[in-house]
Amino acid sequence: MSFEVHLDGPDDLVVQVYRQLREAILDGRLRPGERLPPTRELARATEVSRNTVATAYERLVAEGFVTARVGSGTYVEAGGGLRPASVTPGGSLRPRPIWASETGPAPPVPRYDLRVGTPDADLFPLAAWRRLVGRETRLTTLIEGRRAGPAGNPALRAAVARRLGTARSVRATAADVLVTSGAQQAFDLIGRVLLAPGDVVAVEDPGYPQVRALFQTQGARVVGVPVDSRGLIVDALPADARLVYTTPSHQFPTGVTMALARRRELLAWAGRHDAAIVEDDYDSEFRFANRPLEPLHSLDAAGRVVYVGSFSKTMLPALRLGFLIAPAGLRPALLRAREVTVQHSDPGTEAALAAFLDEGLFARHLRTVTRVYGERRALLLGALRGELSRWLVPVPSTAGLHLTAHLRPEVRTGAATVVGRAARAGVAVQTLAHFAMGPPDRDGLVIGFGSVATDRLPVALRLLSGCFDAG
Ligand SMILES: Cc1ncc(COP(=O)(O)O)c(C=O)c1O
To answer: Which residues pair with 276 in a beta bridge?
Structure first.
């Protein structure tokens, strides 16, 4: 391997070479098992004598950082990379206050994960996916993918339009679909093209924290709007909202479906207030009862709705694939926004997803997982009607991969206490308050049933019920 040594300090040359190699071993730039450059080579590149380098290597050997193997070379010992990864100075630069909160390290993987938003990775059709990614990752696909530009793979756009037309009665052609890196990028692009700093964005409360944070970091004033059993309360919308973010088919996180009358009211409101509506249809694919209501997008004759979908729940969040369908007037700006931010996604992954949809694998996969998730949902509902019913009342809901349950008013154990006890028992679950902007009207739990295997779910639910006080 090549390694550059810079000789510019006051120390003697051996010390400088030794220090720089030691630093590189400690911070992991040189990894255990890696071979140091031959002394002759490093000496020539650094313009020092070979003896200088050899002496530095000897010191590293003596201190156990490297071992010399006769006739083979000098190798970094296991146990290098001891320092934390970051070696850049802290410095005095600071982000704008809106960015001050840090993303912490990912929490440890719980034994039973009942958090929302997590599909079961074990159900992902990995063999078929790997085959398609292998088949579609050709140089021509990559080059054509880049040429396709920010709108994304044309075959994928057509496949998404066809699927939405049949499954969601959304009228769209390939030209209407813009591929995005997950729903989150769709929200980002929409915010970029529609919002000026200080604009008001109305979001459901309780609602999706990721979207709130996104619009806030874009400089919008995010205002929470309450939700009842018929969805977002249109009468409570701030009159100056420029954009309304909503989850009509399965309100996040309560799970209620927005009533048809509310949908009409919301569209009329947007017309009167010249506002845009962002319809997040994030997990409408998973339906467990009655026919779904038409999306807002299908009811919208005035071109006020931007429809956003995601493959995070139906496939895997790690793929980062989603899409949006916007009124024609916004499309050039959205394309430009994608172009100036990420240009486009990985063409190989997009082509693989297009093939997955076109070859009927997506429909089959969805049938399989919906059956499995249906069984898990039935187990959770059974527990909510059985052992958990002393403390919890489920919010009626017919779609998605989680259920929300309110605490009965007479229950003395708060949801936060239950969540803390559950964590200690190996069960990760979230409070309803976690999704609220302020103190919520009602305490409760949001319980995901997607990611715990069907035969393990009863144990998780029993552990959860053990977290409430008996009384
Ligand atoms: C409310 C909501 N919208 C959208 C998404 C999908 O987000 P993305 O496609 O960025 O993974 C999720 C995923 O968990 C969600 O909970």
So the answer is: 243
Determine the residue type at 74. Answer: T
Q: Does the beta carbon of 400 sit less than 6 angstroms from any atom of ligand 1?
A: no
State which amino acid sits at residue 332: P
Stretch 425-432: mean pLDDT: 96
Do 451 and 113 touch, CB atoms closer than 8 A?
yes
- The CATH number of 126-359 is 3.40.640.10
Q: Which two tokens stand for residue 339?
A: 């172009």
Cis peptide before 206 (omega within 30 of 0): yes
What residue's CA is closest to ligand 1, atom 2? 282
Return the higher-pLDDT residue of 127 and 107: 127
Q: Is the dihedral of CA 246, 343, 303, 400 positive or negative?
A: negative
Domains in the chain: boundaries: 13-76, 112-116+364-465, 126-359
| Ligand 1, atom 6: closest residue by C-alpha | 183
**CA 219 to centroid of chain Cα atoms:** 21
Rounded CA-CA distance 464/113 in Å is 11
Positive or negative: CA dihedral 168, 170, 171, 177? negative
Q: Does the pLDDT value for residue 247 go beyond 90?
A: yes
Ligand 1 lined by 39 (C-beta under 6 Å):
no
Q: Do domains 112-116+364-465 and 126-359 have the same CATH topology?
A: no
How many Å apart are CA 281 and CA 327, to the nearest integer?
Answer: 16
| Ligand 1 contacts CB of residue 204 (under 6 A) | no
Q: Which CATH number fits domain 112-116+364-465: 2.60.40.10, 3.90.1150.10, 3.40.47.10, 3.60.20.10?
A: 3.90.1150.10
Residues 251-288: tens digit of each pLDDT: 999 999 999 999 999 999 999 999 999 999 998 889 88
Tokens coding 430: 């979230």
CATH code, 13-76: 1.10.10.10
Query: Which tokens sit at 267?
Result: 């569209």
- Residue 327 makes CB contacts below 8 A (sequence gap 6+) with 303, 304, 305, 306
Residue 107 DSSP symbol: P
Indicate the helix (H) or strand (E) that contains 243: strand 241-246
What does the alpha-carbon distance between residue 175 and residue 189 come to, in Å, rounded to a whole number?
A: 17
**Distance, CA 68 to ligand 1 centroid (Å)?**
52
Place of tokens 């019913």: 389
